[in-house]
Specification:
Chain lengths: 201, 335
């Protein structure tokens, strides 16, 4: 199998793996099949989904390097865009089903609740990455594209903090995610060191 | 003589969704096939290794019908359907996710049961399982339940006033507070055995009330809901219901009630004292540090698209009955 066939099949799997659960979620939600509080279910499902996809996206380049499978890199954009799609649904769920379009409440919650502020900053950054994933823009941006997309690491940290901060008492899952993020950052320790140094010099 | 004085929070008979109508609706939906397909897929979606556990291996817990007098006042409140009351529970002893207690509590043994009432009182007693439903005449009380997480339900509880139980043991002059304790039995309660499942809180779960709060006629010892004994996920065989306080005060599966001189150290306050206070009175003007308490989502028969966000009322709408208990207190300091 050529690399391009492999990429094709991988992308099919990614599309199905990302879209089917989302479609199923809203199919169940429409039919009142998500238990007593569907609002909590759709918010948590899309939130965790976004984080999972983000971490999968970040694990692609270490995997490609370790297993010497360069073609894997071609799946990063579609994975990242699905991470963004889930994050977008997460925010829309909160706006439409949790605060139910009470604009004042939405804004005050985003500003006053640190865990929501952190989540929203991550979402806005992710929006910028999603928009600049268009090939034309990428070419136009040249070197600054990579600089912008290095925010990925910060986003992963912010989202994990957002998760950790949002739970009432069960810290095992957020700490598990934090460990994975730190592991993924470890693969890029040189690059991150360089980034931090350039920030302070 | 019982004098029925309609209260401010009373609504109108026509608003109640009768249980049979609710079930009829479910039956119709089932026939249409929506529910069947939905149920199959929801277990696939449930992010829970134990999904299907309850349906495969275990017979559901058996409840039985109770004899009680109807709530004379609140028949008009729109109730939360029974199915939702018994499937959406915060009972970390059986898992910290909302659907876990209904799955993991079905083999819970409530008979025999012993509830010991002791401490600063003249006649300490221990109640057996049968005493819980036979010692006092049972009444239905339809109360709003406001969770600290900003959702709420309306539940037809069955039980008796805590006051009538306390009068029986005759508290002495040193009884300033009442401390409650949930059963500690890690063999039966997987959340107590596994830190991840149990949400990292300290067990046994402890709650407390000031003696005047405990003696308030609204404070209920509940042994049932929707006409039947409590299912384990709702705190069988006996639990507290304090309708003007956040739900975590209403401790479940109680084995000990102790009259004490000093304020007991309660579970959530110990875990996060800045977020959860001893009083935990429902207060729209005092936000949880991480979310607003000014409004709530009322869980009724609707699904995702129901516009169910309503204003939260001081003392959950029971000001008339309980505001006097806190006269002169700074409720932002004593939250």
């Amino acid at each position: 199998m050529t690399s391009s066939t492999k990429v094709f099949f991988l992308k099919v799997i990614i599309h199905l793996g990302a879209l089917l659960p989302l479609a199923n979620l809203y199919f169940l939600a429409f039919g009142d099949g998500l238990g007593a509080d569907p609002v909590e279910v759709v918010i948590h499902f899309t939130g965790i989904g976004a984080l999972n996809l983000l971490l999968i996206t970040l694990s692609i380049s270490p995997l490609a390097k370790i297993f010497k499978q360069g073609y894997l890199l071609q799946t990063r954009r579609v994975l990242g865009l699905y991470a963004y799609t889930y994050a977008l649904f997460h925010v829309l769920n909160f706006l439409s089903f949790e605060v139910q379009f009470d604009g004042a409440l939405f804004i005050s919650e985003v500003i006053e609740r640190p865990y929501i502020t952190v989540g929203m900053v991550a979402f806005l950054l992710l929006t910028a990455l999603a928009i600049t994933s268009i090939s034309k823009l990428k070419r136009k941006m040249g070197k600054s594209w990579q600089r912008l997309h290095n925010f990925n690491y910060l986003i992963a940290l912010l989202v994990t903090v957002h998760f950790y901060w949002s739970v009432k008492s069960e810290l095992t899952s957020p700490l598990f995610y934090l460990a994975i993020v730190l592991l993924l950052l470890l693969f890029r320790v040189k690059k991150i060191k360089r980034l931090l140094l350039s920030l302070f010099t | 003589m019982l004098i029925n004085i309609p209260k401010k929070f009373d609504l109108n008979e026509s608003h109640v969704t009768d249980e049979p109508i609710y079930h009829e609706r479910r039956r119709l939906l089932k026939q249409m096939g929506f529910l069947g397909a939905g149920a199959l897929m929801s277990s696939a979606i449930a992010n829970n290794a134990k999904a299907g556990f309850f349906s495969d291996d275990e017979a559901p817990f058996q409840t039985r019908t109770l004899t009680y007098s109807k709530d004379p006042f609140n028949q008009t409140l729109i109730k939360t359907p029974e199915k939702k009351v018994i499937s959406h529970n915060n009972f970390y002893e059986f898992g910290s996710k909302k659907d876990q207690p209904a799955e993991l509590a079905q083999s819970f043994k409530v008979e025999p049961w012993q509830l010991k009432i002791s401490g600063e009182c003249d006649h300490p007693i221990t109640l057996d399982y049968d005493d819980l439903t036979k010692l006092f005449p049972l009444e239905e009380r339809i109360y709003r339940l406001r969770c600290v997480e900003a959702w709420s339900m309306v539940i037809p509880w069955i039980g008796f006033s805590l006051a009538s139980l306390l009068k029986k043991v005759a508290p002495n002059s040193r009884a300033n507070y009442v401390a409650f304790e949930t059963l500690y039995d890690p063999k039966q309660m997987p959340g107590q055995a596994n830190r991840r499942l149990g949400g990292g809180i300290k067990y046994p779960y402890v709650e407390g009330l000031r003696i005047d709060e405990a003696m308030n006629p609204l404070t209920l010892m509940s042994v049932g809901l929707y006409g039947k004994t409590l299912p384990p996920q709702n705190g069988a065989p006996i639990r507290l219901v304090v309708p003007w306080k956040y739900g975590f005060k209403s401790i479940k599966s109680i084995v000990g009630i102790k009259l004490v001189e000093h304020k007991p150290s309660t579970t959530w306050k110990k875990l996060a004292p800045k977020e959860y206070g001893f009083y935990a009175n429902v207060n729209p003007n005092h936000d949880h540090p991480r979310w607003s308490q000014a409004s709530e989502r009322r869980i009724t028969s609707g699904g995702l698209f129901t516009r169910n966000r309503i204003a939260t009322l001081p003392f959950n709408g029971y000001s008339e009955e309980v505001a006097d208990l806190y006269r002169g207190m700074n409720l932002s300091k004593h939250f």
